[in-house]
Amino acid sequence: MWTIWSIGYQQVENSVIQPQIQKRATKIEAFIVLVAVLFGSTAFAGQMKPGAVPGEKATQVPHLVPNAAVFTCETRPFDESAGLFCYGPGAIRKAYGIDSLINKGYTGKGRTIVILDAFGSPSVATDLANFDTVYGLPAPPSLKIITMPGTPAFDPTDADMVGWTGEIALDTQWAHAVAPGANIVLVAAKSDNDEDLLAALNYALGA
After folding, report:
1. What is the DSSP letter of 43?
2. What is the pTM of this model?
């Protein structure tokens, strides 16, 4: 079982971490912190429940995205008259002008994106590889995972930990989608308490 995100929208808001980024961001060249509020049910945390979460089928639509899969929700009208509309990497890149930058060689090559989340995910590398396969993206130059000391072992029955695996999948996949040539470093705080997230942030800023 893997997690592939086809919707690239996220609101990032944290009153503790944001001031630290503004104060100390000059210490690094490229630093992205993605800590988000999780949405959705965790009723099936740690359980295999096929069909519990409705999914969209991925199909080939050569005239839209050659050599890559497109989810059905991406082909629907924007007015949602045929159901919920969603976005894949191609749509997001075009909407924000990222595709033209990538075509000019601005892929993030030589840069590093640092992502801060909690607990970590045992499937992050597999999730990212599957995302790349589905959307026809190259693998990132490197994916490094740093787990902060004291982080408990992953527990598939812990709804909080399981919830963060979805967040981690979202963060790594979409960071890679918009900067396919960049290295990715995931720093996993030992919990999602503010003090642990801040400790992980300070570690990343000092690394």
Report:
1. T
2. 0.68
